[in-house]
Amino acid sequence: MHLITSSLGQKRLELILELVPKARTINMLVNPTFPDTEIEVRDVQAAAIANHLQLRTVNASTVPEIDEAFAAMASQHAEAIIVASDPFLLTRRDQFAALAARHRILAIYPFREFVAAGGLMSYGASLAGAYREIGRYAGRILKGAKPDDLPVIQPTIFEMVINLKTAKGLGLAVPPMLRARADEVIE
After folding, report:
1. H or E segment and range at residue 47
2. What pLDDT sits at residue 161?
3. How far apart are CA 40 and CA 52, in angstroms?
4. Is 6 in contact with 84 (CB distance < 8 Å)?
5. What are the boundaries of each domain within the chain?
6. CA 143 to CA 137: how far, in whole Å?
7. What SS3 state is found at 57?
8. For the segment 51-71, what is each residue's pLDDT rounded down to a tens digit?
9. 120 — phi, psi (to 5°)?
10. For every residue of 102-153, which 3-state class applies, written as one string?
């Protein structure tokens, strides 16, 4: 199953702008070695232009580069960051949450797992839902279905998660309308 999370970058930009409506420059942290990065950056760039924003792309494809990226964004007084959809970046969610808190940077992530680790907000496909679908596929194959005969499916469950404890630590008031739209609010 291929998660279409990269095409959700525009929505993540809209959501981060609800938190910081006066933002003029948004950073996007990406892994340049991930195949979907170019498409995701292009989509977010188009949304940034439409909103009269500047989008700065920051690359990180190793653990030390993530630390360096956050330090660089902090020195540039980053208003907010969008973290790209990428399996490597997902594995570093604890590092992201700690660095965003230390540098007091608002960040939106592609998966709820970042927010559960202490990140501020996420919007994306449910990984738990995707894993269930993978299990169903595996079950069908084990029962004799041919993989070529199975339909291609995309995620159908998308979720927005907000961590109010993190927001409070950043001195950020989450608008009530945004909170009301969240699928999960961590207090």
Report:
1. helix 37-50
2. 96
3. 18
4. yes
5. 4-125+158-186
6. 10
7. strand
8. 999 999 999 999 999 999 999
9. -80, -55
10. HHCCCEEECCHHHHHCCCCEEEEECHHHHHHHHHHHHHHHHCCCCHHHCCCC
Sheet holding 121-125, edge to edge: 54-59, 25-30, 81-83, 107-109, 121-125, 158-163, 184-186
Residue bearing tokens 């907010």: 80
Whether the pLDDT of residue 145 is over 90: the answer is no
Fold annotation for 4-125+158-186:
Rossmann fold (3.40.50)
pTM of the model: 0.86
Strands in the chain per DSSP E: 25-30, 54-59, 81-83, 107-109, 121-125, 158-163, 184-186
Closest CA to 172 of 116, 109, 106: 106
Look at residue 22 and give its three-state secondary structure: coil
Contact 106, 172 (CB under 8 A): yes
